């Protein structure tokens, strides 16, 4: 099951202080109930889907495939973001966390009423449900997160758009076994879902580092993704 999504707000007030970017990898995250294999599953599935979109291979309900991405960034796993996702997941409350508790982080949620689902399986279920919004509801070739797209009745697209938001490249996730559900929380930085913005720049995917237009990026031609160094 999926909750209503959240838009990003450029003029929101908050008392939180932005956290410093984490230099940790999934291999150095603390022992908190998540394993290296579980973290790798979350990261690999996100990047595989981002690569699929970048190559123009993702089906869109509006017809054809989503447009190719010119400089889609490859995600990295962030232990600090995982800690933020964990704090919310452990509340076992199926609603988005208050924005001031996760400054500049987007968030996707998923739950199943089946208890104690294997955490890798729960990751697979949640990520697939989020990405499937493209094939079920569609975005279209304009590739802009419009008010009309966001407010369509009985459809959701914001989980998909946050997953493939071009400049979002940090990911942290947590799976909690609650008393009434298995709960999946992923958070993303920098957050996406800015109303009126391109979800990602359209165009042929990178073939050289210069195509990424990022001073610290390398082009992965095989994945069609820009790897932040």
UniProtKB/TrEMBL annotation:
Assigned GO CC terms: extracellular region
Occurrences of domain SCP (ranges): 37-196
Region (Disordered): 12-34
Biased composition (Polar residues): 12-30
Coiled coil residues, start to end: none
Pfam family, one: CAP
PANTHER family: CYSTEINE-RICH SECRETORY PROTEIN-RELATED
Name the record gives this protein: SCP-like protein
């Amino acid at each position: 099951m999926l909750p209503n999504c959240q838009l990003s707000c450029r003029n929101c007030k908050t008392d939180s202080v932005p956290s410093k970017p984490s230099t940790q990898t999934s291999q150095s995250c603390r022992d908190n109930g998540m394993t290296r294999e579980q973290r790798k599953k979350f990261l690999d599935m996100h990047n595989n889907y981002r690569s699929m979109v970048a190559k123009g291979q993702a089906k869109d309900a509006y017809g054809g495939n989503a447009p190719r991405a010119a400089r889609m960034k490859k995600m990295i796993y962030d232990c600090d973001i995982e800690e933020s996702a964990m704090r919310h997941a452990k509340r076992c409350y199926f609603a988005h966390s208050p924005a001031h508790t996760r400054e500049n982080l987007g968030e996707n949620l998923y739950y199943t009423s089946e208890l104690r689902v294997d955490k890798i399986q729960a990751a697979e279920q949640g990520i697939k449900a989020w990405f499937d919004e493209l094939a079920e509801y569609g975005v279209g070739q304009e590739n802009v997160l419009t008010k009309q797209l966001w407010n369509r009745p009985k459809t959701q697209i914001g989980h998909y758009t946050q997953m493939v938001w071009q400049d979002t490249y940090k990911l942290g996730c947590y799976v909690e076994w609650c008393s009434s559900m298995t709960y999946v929380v992923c958070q993303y930085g920098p957050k996406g879902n800015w109303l009126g913005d391109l979800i990602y720049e359209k165009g042929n995917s990178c073939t050289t580092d210069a195509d990424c237009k990022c001073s610290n990026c390398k082009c992965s031609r095989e994945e069609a993704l820009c790897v932040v160094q």
